[in-house]
Design goal:
single chain, mainly alpha, 2 domains, 0% strand
């Protein structure tokens, strides 16, 4: 009887130890799972953006080297985990900091490439508006509403580092088209066509040629006190 009770006590003790071990490991698994999920979650919007850029022919960059390094870590961890699930809990086995560092490095590269390519896209698509000229035209009643609309469109576009979803990309494309049209249609009831042509050309990086500065244009610029804001330079 004594031996039997002793055996039962030993069994209960062992069960207690196993339960505590399971709880401890469960917390370890949950902690590691959260760490991996958070790291991967940081890549999801960037991965989505890359797919959007690639579909539109704008992803001319290659990050396969860093992606392959990260993939190697994941494949190795998956193999070891399948052999022994408790392997992933130990920091000496699965280096969570190294994994996160690889994720962060890849994310940084993707973000830099996406920002650069988006800026290049905007440089090709955006009209050559001039902020200083727009500020001047905003003081003229016949221009004010159109200029304010242009400025709002520009601000909305400029605040996006790069589009992360199809809907955002589509929205920005429409904003750029709208901005182009507004700039091309920029006009006022009392503004002669020759003045509009001169102002649009003056806002362009290449500037307006002197032959566009006709007496009619000069008179209009003087009347609206814009002449002092313009400069003549040799190319």
């Amino acid at each position: 009887m004594l031996l039997e009770k002793a055996q039962q006590l030993s069994t209960l003790a062992d069960q207690k130890i196993q339960r505590e071990k399971y709880v401890k490991h469960r917390q370890g698994f949950e902690s590691r799972q959260k760490q991996i999920e958070n790291a991967i979650a940081s890549l999801e919007p960037l991965d989505n953006a890359v797919k959007i850029f690639r579909d539109r022919g704008l992803a001319d960059f290659d990050v396969s080297n860093k992606a392959d390094q990260l993939l190697g870590l994941i494949i190795q961890a998956k193999k070891r985990f399948e052999e022994n699930p408790e392997w992933i809990i130990e920091n000496n086995n699965f280096d969570g900091n190294r994994f996160k560092s690889s994720i962060d490095s890849l994310a940084k590269s993707l973000r830099q490439h996406l920002e650069r390519n988006w800026k290049q896209y905007l440089a090709q698509q955006m009209p050559s508006t001039n902020d200083e000229l727009l500020n001047l035209l905003a003081k003229i009643p016949s221009f004010r509403a159109d200029v304010e609309h242009i400025q709002k469109l520009k601000a909305d576009i400029d605040q996006v580092e790069f589009p992360e979803t199809q809907s955002i990309f589509g929205h920005l494309e429409n904003s750029i088209k709208n901005l182009k049209k507004c700039w091309e249609d920029l006009s006022g009831d009392d503004v002669p066509e020759a003045v509009l042509i001169f102002l649009r050309r003056a806002a362009d990086p290449e500037g307006a040629t002197l032959d566009l500065l006709t007496p009619e244009v000069t008179e209009w610029l003087d009347r609206h006190q814009i002449s002092q804001a313009l400069r003549i330079r040799l190319l």
